[in-house]
Write a structure and sequence with these properties.
mainly alpha, 18 helices
Length: 375
């Protein structure tokens, strides 16, 4: 049996559990959609950001929406790889852009689950890897993995880049990090991990003459996708260093060390709010706690930097507070402490926890698809 087939064979139980979790979640969403007279496909394929991605895929960049409150939302805020793939699928299959987005996201979610398994199996073994994959599929906001969104694609590139990094495949790590950077703004976390590990490796090899070229290449490739798109937007806007960030400010998105989030939290305390806002606060807080627990286990530098940058962007950024759980979705190493605790727990207790998480995931995920707030 070839190495890839053997690796897939080992991962099959975990991938089966992941598929069962997400298919069940989609079934619950579909039943509720039919109950309220909505189309399940529309909820999964054309909600919120999905419409922007499909619009870019079919018409290219150039759409800007001006709101009465002064917000200016340009489609240049969305990175190009996912809509480019949607366009490619539509050109070869008789499907609409939304359906193409769903097909891509489902395929990417499977590839991401396999990548997550591969990383954790290499570091901690098959049992913990299976638990992490299952928990990832049962997160409260895991419904995003079944929608036409970019998080599945980013996580797939990130997981396999990290796997290449921890196994010494420098060129693969750099190339996949570059693709992650073309997928989402927080894809820069993958490049940060590759560059940090490459820097340490080059320092370790200082004074030696050979074997450093692949490391340098990885460090150069990793940020190329992210930097390339940010600079392209800057050129298009006539402000090379700041054009992309001006676009993000139009969406009220900026890095302000969490000051904007504090204002949202104050508003949640003093007035009514949607369920998604306190849930976002709980999930972001849990993410910070899990990151501290992850650090206590002294994981590899690649996982520390990747996860730390994702947590920092999520906690320190303002704008769309309700979307913070989605921004943390690619941070699968955060699940390592929880998976380790479940592995040590009694079987009945572990099953009870997983069942509770499943119930929360399916119910809250359904709520997110129909809630009147940005996902």
């Amino acid at each position: 049996m070839s190495r890839p087939r053997a690796a897939l064979h080992r991962a099959a139980p975990a991938l089966g559990l992941f598929a069962a979790a997400r298919l069940t979640g989609m079934a619950v969403v579909s039943l509720w959609a039919w109950h309220i007279g909505r189309s399940p496909r529309a909820l999964l394929a054309t909600s919120w950001d999905s419409r922007w991605y499909v619009g870019i895929a079919t018409q290219g960049y150039g759409r800007t929406v001006y709101w009465p409150d002064g917000a200016v939302q340009s489609d240049l805020a969305f990175f190009p790889l996912y809509p480019g793939l949607i366009r490619a699928v539509v050109s070869v299959l008789p499907v609409t852009g939304g359906t193409a987005g769903l097909l891509l996201s489902w395929a990417a979610a499977g590839a991401a689950a396999w990548g997550v398994y591969a990383v954790v199996e290499r570091l901690h073994g098959r049992r913990l890897a299976t638990l992490v994959v299952l928990l990832w599929g049962l997160l409260p906001h895991a419904v995003v993995l079944s929608m036409a969104y970019t998080e599945p694609l980013l996580t797939a590139f990130a997981a396999w880049s990290l796997y290449a990094l921890v196994s010494g495949r420098w060129l693969w790590a750099g190339a996949l990090a570059g693709l992650a950077g073309l997928t989402r703004p927080n894809g820069i976390a993958v490049a940060a991990a590759v560059c940090a590990v490459a820097g340490c490796e080059l320092w370790r090899r200082r004074g030696t003459k050979g074997g450093r070229a692949p490391v340098w290449a990885a460090a150069a490739l990793a940020p190329a996708g992210w930097l390339g798109y940010v600079l392209w937007v800057g050129v298009r806007r006539g402000d090379v260093p700041g054009g992309y960030f001006a676009v993000q400010r139009g969406w009220t998105s900026r890095f302000d060390l969490g000051l904007g989030s504090l204002r949202v939290i104050r508003g949640m305390v003093t007035g009514p709010t949607f369920l998604g806002f306190p849930m976002a606060l709980l999930i972001a807080g849990a993410g910070v706690l899990l990151f501290v627990l992850l650090l206590l286990d002294r994981p590899p530098l690649a996982l520390v930097v990747y996860t730390g940058v994702l947590v920092l962007i999520t906690v320190g950024g303002s704008g769309f507070f309700e979307s913070k759980p989605r921004f943390l979705l690619p941070a699968f190493p955060l699940l390592l402490p929880l998976a380790a605790a479940l592995a040590k727990a009694r079987p009945r207790a572990a099953v009870a926890v997983i069942a509770a998480l499943a119930g929360l995931s399916f119910c809250y995920g359904t709520y997110l698809t129909v809630a009147p707030m940005a996902l």
